[in-house]
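User: I'm putting together a small comparison set for a docking exercise, and I want a reference complex before I start. The sequence is below, and the ligand is adenosine-5'-diphosphate. Could you produce the 3D structure with the ligand included, as structure tokens?
Assistant: Of course. I'll restate your input first, then give the structure tokens for the complex.
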Amino acid sequence: DNPDQYRPLTPAELGSRLSTVPAIAGRIGADPARWNVREVGDGNLNLVFIVEGPEGTVIVKQALPYVRLVGDSWPLPLYRAFYENHALVRQAERDPGAVPAVYHFDETQALIVMEFLSPHKILRRKLIDGERVADLGAFLGRFCARTAFRGSELSMKSADKKKDVGLFSGNVEIPAITEALVFTDPYYSAEMNHHTDGLDPVVAGLRGDAKLKARVQRLLMKFASNTETMVHGDLHSGSIMSTDSESKVIDPEFVQYGPMGFDLGMLVANFLMAYFSQPAHRAPTELAGYQDWILSVIDDVLTGFDTEFRHLWATERTGMLYPAALFEDQGQSSEEACLALLADIRADALGFCGIEMHRRTLSLAHNADFEDIQDAALKSRLEARNLAMGAELILMSEALGSAEKLLDLARRYN
Ligand code: ADP
Ligand code: MG
Ligand code: MG
Ligand code: MG
């Protein structure tokens, strides 16, 4: 075994290959013969092992050199694990406790050893199963605000931030996936696209709308060119793990510097897709109550984001942007400037939100909220609502300033 060369782990070999890693042995017990290893990766890209020993349990996540969902015909660089590790470290600093703790990183093997979250469950599954999570929206809104603010030049020293932009700009293949699958493929007949029978007219309508496509391209330009802050990059309900009262954010390998509204928009889109898919998953007696709860989570996300962002604006505005020298030191409030910025972030977020709603039903990687629906006619009816609202969000994002307007729109399309 050559430790200088990358080799994917297998459950059978993991013990012998990682028994000398103190971050594992010291936590779960030093005798690998007593480790129980299970591969649990359910994502599109990586190997994930639960490694359970007599004294504890850790997660080992290892990148594969190709897209797991597609196979080795689609290579993907291992270096994304390097960026995921850096992202987890920064997120832990910016929102302590929000992400699993990293215990060990091995660049050659492209693997991260991290905290095992238990009894946490993937949020997407909980939403399909009709389970509620206390404090969910507030936690996520706070996470988005803290990472957006503290990763930007509202807070960071410019030199530090620019250096970090340089570091993360090496992660080129991963943003390219988002640029294609999320922003581009839904709007033409890209090779890997697929959609439910019955949606052809809706899809033709989207592709026939040059104004809509132009707005999507404008948002793609912001995504590809703005380096406002370090974004998670893949903040959907499959990247959140929750108990009934606690949540954590995982899987930031799509990290990049990007627009402040990107994570917020992706997140809201995934709650809206959970909302629109509910008629297929809930008994009629529970449907309205659970859908209302999902909308209340969206409200909490948006409100929580604004509240935390304004708090950080008032207490941690130590960067180059909007300095006190221009406002408070001249006896002027900067509150209006903050509100105007928040309005821009919200408008961007709702645009990204609409695009995410489109790509999850039209492009390569769909989500279980809709994919688990067996009744094809019902599935296409619910997906059509989701697509229509997505289009309205892209076209009308500036006009939907308040959370209440957004929720009303969702109720109208439901
Ligand atoms: P991918 O990048 O391939 O999507 P993820 O990081 O999303 O990989 O992990 C895949 C799955 O592994 C998750 O859906 C979850 O079930 C499990 N998992 C990942 N990280 C943890 C963790 N820290 N604790 C417990 N389970 C985890
Ligand atoms: Mg994942
Ligand atoms: Mg996953
Ligand atoms: Mg991932």
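The pocket of adenosine-5'-diphosphate (ligand 1) is lined by residues 40-46, 48, 59, 61, 100, 114-117, 122, 250-251, 253 (CB under 6 Å). The chain has a mean pLDDT of 96.
User: Thanks, that's exactly what I needed.
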